User: Fold Cytochrome P450 from Lepraria neglecta.
Amino acid sequence: MMGMLNMYGPTITATEGEESRIYRKIATPSFNDRTHGSAWIESLGLTSALLKRWDSMKAPITQLNEDVARLTLQVISYVCFDRQMEWAEATGRQDNPPKGHSMSYREAISSMVDNIPTLFMVPPPVLSKKKGCKDRSSLMEHSDISPIDAHKKAKASYAEWQKYMEEMRDETSESLRRNGSRNDASILESFVQAGQTSTTDSKDAKISPAAVLGNIFVFIMAGYETSANTLTYAIALLACRPDLQKAMQADLDRILGDCPSSDWSYEADFPKILAGYVGAVMNETLRLYSVLPFFPKTTRETPKPFTFDGRDYTVPADTLILMNTSATHRNPKYWPAVVPIAGDGPPYPVSSFDLSRWLNKDKGISAFSPTPGSYVPFSDGPRACIGKRFAQAQFCAVMATIFKDYSVELAVDDSQAAEKGVSKSLWEKAKRNAEQELSTGVGFLMSLKMKGKIPLRLVKRGEEQSVV
Ligand code: HEM
Assistant:
């Protein structure tokens, strides 16, 4: 199942045993405080730029997921892959491909991710004209054979993204040759170096050339989509729950005071923000929207015994296990509903969104450890998410920057709004629509993503619409 991710070569995510351990060993040293601190600083700066754009917009924000995905892509690209995206790409004003490319960097990766299922299912000879084109790596050079637009687009995005990754690899390889390796190498440098030989014998390299590209692809994809989707749900949920938004803002005031965001520190402020309301928002968002709603696991060659409710069981060898994280995170035994859910409709995320589960009533700080195994948004054990701290630093920086000075609210139809404010019925209608999008408008491609649009508005704190 995970083999889909090995599009450009073997990856940390879709290999097993010794092979994946080697990739993890190469990447682990780069996930340190320096990297997480850079993710924090980059996220602060880019969110301020995004806020300027949103603030100047007359129309409601309808591209929340796209805008946030630009931001998270820029953060991971810059911090882990030494790639500075065009500033215009980050602010969304233009998205022109650079010389030698037919797609911009952002367009190439997002289109590649959208087209993974097509690339995986359509055999390479159907996509490419060259005789004997058996694997995807040779899709680059040859012209299209399939007349189907979806196939042409899939092939083009595959080839474009490969070109970008090869450029990154070659530039890094050249810089390593000229300057030697650094102690605090980025993920990109670590993988490129592991793929290099010190002699002419290619067996000298720790990993294959294909594994260098495979891992660049999977780290960028794993690092930006998941974070962008989590931020999108969190912002949309808070727009539906102004009461919780206010409580979170008060907590940010308590932690950050009047200090400008340029002075917020990863060392001093991030741990407090994570332990407070923003951390609770992240935890509760990930409980309801586990971006990977199931984890595929296998017992491999050994049967696995386990005990459940006092009885012994054995899962046979070579059994595929799909751990349903969405259901685990909603199991009423561990996660009782705060508001009774009526009828048989879809699960209602806005009513279920409850920060108090995570916070100490009096102190407002993190005070709850879920029962082991009942909450696994980043998985668990030796194959747990390597980017958890990175994702937390980024989430806290983005949310603190937005909500310290601004509020996000549902954009109700102004033409019908009363002079004194928005009528309760109009607001409730907008909330019902938003809740529907947050429920049935969500689908799984490579992660759980909101497909529909919820019109939102950014307003300065204190200028929120009143509901009358
Ligand atoms: C909110 C954000 C994120 C969530 C919810 C998340 C979730 C997860 C989960 C559940 C897994 C395990 C998948 C499985 O067992 O099948 C995983 C693995 C992984 N994640 Fe994340 N992730 C996030 C952010 C990131 C970031 C920012 C990075 C990189 C900078 C990253 C890199 C990875 C990698 C490389 C793996 C594979 C680890 C391995 O197989 O050994 N993730 N992530």
The longest strand covers residues 294-298.
